[in-house]
TrEMBL record, chain A:
Name of the protein: Acyltransferase family protein
TM helices/strands, residue ranges: none
Ranges for domain Phospholipid/glycerol acyltransferase: 74-192
Pfam name, any one: Acyltransferase
Keyword RNA-binding among record annotations: no
InterPro entries with a match to the protein in the record: Plipid/glycerol_acylTrfase
CDD domains assigned: LPLAT_MGAT-like
Molecular function GO labels: acyltransferase activity
Cellular compartments per GO CC: membrane
TrEMBL record, chain B:
Domain (NAD-dependent epimerase/dehydratase) ranges: 51-234
Region Disordered, annotated ranges: 1-32
Pfam families in the record: Epimerase
The protein's name in its UniProt record: UDP-glucose 4-epimerase
Entry superkingdom: Bacteria
Biased composition (Basic and acidic residues): 1-10, 22-32
InterPro entries: Epimerase_deHydtase, NAD(P)-bd_dom_sf
Phylogenetic lineage: Bacteria, Pseudomonadati, Myxococcota, Polyangia, Nannocystales
Amino acid sequence: MALLRPDLIQALLPARERERIESYALDDAGAGTDAFGTSATGIGNAYAVAYWLHRYYFRVVSAGHENIPLSRGGVVVGNHSGVLPFDGAMVSTDVFRHTDPPRLVRFMVDFFVYSMPYIGTLFRSLGQVPGTRRNFDGLIEEGHLVGIFPEGADALGKPAEDRYELFPFSHGHVELAARHGAPVIPFGVVGAEEQQTVITNLQPLARALNLPFIPVTRTFPWLGPAGLLPKPVRYFIHYGEPLDIDPAVLESIEVRASEVERVRDAVREQIRVGLEHRRLVDEGRA
Amino acid sequence: MNEGHEDDRVVNVNAGSDPDPDPARSQDADDQVRQIMDSTPTLLRPGPRRILIAGARRKIAGELIACLLEDRRIDKILAVGEGACPPGLLGHDPNRFMYHTATLDRRRQVDNLFLFEEFREHPLDTVVHLAFSGNPKGYDVSRHEYNVNAARHLLDASLRHGIGKYVFLSSDAVYAVGPRGDYKVAEDAELNLDPSSPKSVRDIIDAEFYCRAKMDSPGCEVMVLRPAGVIGGGVMSGLNLLFESHPPVLPIGFDPMINPTTKERLARDIQLALMLRGKGVYNIAGPSPGPLTRFLEQRGITPMRVPGPLLRQANRLQRMIGQTRYHAEYQPKRLFYSLVLDDARFEAAFRQRASMLSAG
């Protein structure tokens, strides 16, 4: 148990990164957490682990951090894949590492996560909240960066033949961004699609268990839960220029659909940039 | 402060008019002044208060009565309960406090409360309804009648007798709790209308609906207060019973967010609701949200953890051996999922104007 002490876990980090954790301003609501349940200890411990994953396991290469707002709220929107949401964790870690003062991307998470013991509590302590409108409103009104995967949790179980094909986007993110006048920052993650090779999805069983998907991969379920762990692929994360959403999305379904397509195109462009970057790295030209 | 301001208005209006020897015209002027006073949008309800408190045997009622009697604007309190007067209320000034035993699910008995001789000249003007049996143990039709009919009879009688304010103390149990929870639950959040929810919770919602149906009554401000769980003070709230357990039993892997209040804070909030103008449904909660385990830690309590599916059985066993009075069946999801009440509306409409009470 002594090994789980926050000070010991955070001692794994370089001094500069520990200072980064200490400089993160958590708005303590009075009982050691902010109003959303985020705790400084939770963020510190998670960052201590995620930092090493980011740097040495996924060896994340990223660009476009100048597009992330440093003070005001924003909606960070990108593609989702990889069976387990390491892409979300790496985006959060990447933004935390490369913004000064550090900013935390708080993803809107599917509800089923919060019905799972430990996982829901862990997600909440890391600032990740259930994806409800009121939670979105609260985060944006307090000037946070809100992360959304508009493809939904289903995209995590994307089969191998659909790699880097975007599922249809839900519309909520543009509507909420327009309502709050918040910019949408598109990002593309390249690499997460290869961390697991999904062969098929056991949909009837998933429906019976109230889960978004149950994948069959090259390693799962054959190796048990360990088969869900990702391969050490290199991630490429690119952030695009902020998009201002047309306020008319609140009045016209056609405008809303076209704005959703604009965001989707922007995400697709960041994926293209990431794939190109990866090709150059693989060829030893970058 | 507003009372004084209103008194000034009376003086100024009278001073500004010429002395009129004609009594009929003088009467007209008085009526005019009264009309001006009535139409003035003051926040502090003017005049001394005569308050009926139903459910006087509850701990929160004792705290509220003590709190109210410290205020010189409270002229008289009629406390009503089932059975004898609780010892804690016996020491109050008999000129300002009286206790009466009544069965609130009987319409006639409720009506009689408004007809006491003490209130003939100066009738009751405020009703606080705290009488609610939330204990799921031994629930039967008589409990249902007590819970729902008492609320209906009290409200009907209040409207008939010209009561200016009716406050019903509801509960946060009316809200649906689950993984889809908002970080703060506002008054318009989804209600717990699940058919499997405890009957006493449905009684609270029933009683609330009666209140909401009468909220547009022109002469009576009908308020429903939904308090967060109360910790401490020996109250019979679910949260407090959990905290008093030996030990509290919680599900493994869950640590919901709560923002509990205290008996003292709740009494103060009800007092504000009684003294200031306002109607509608309001959440009232404690000052700060936090994880349940943090509140337990602060009180030096170490919980015991069991797997979630075994929680009810563990709670039943614990009750059988007398180690807890907490009922996990009452709000079964409460120990799994967060419920933090958003009381920003109450804060803005009442607490921020609390200085009016002290100034008055």
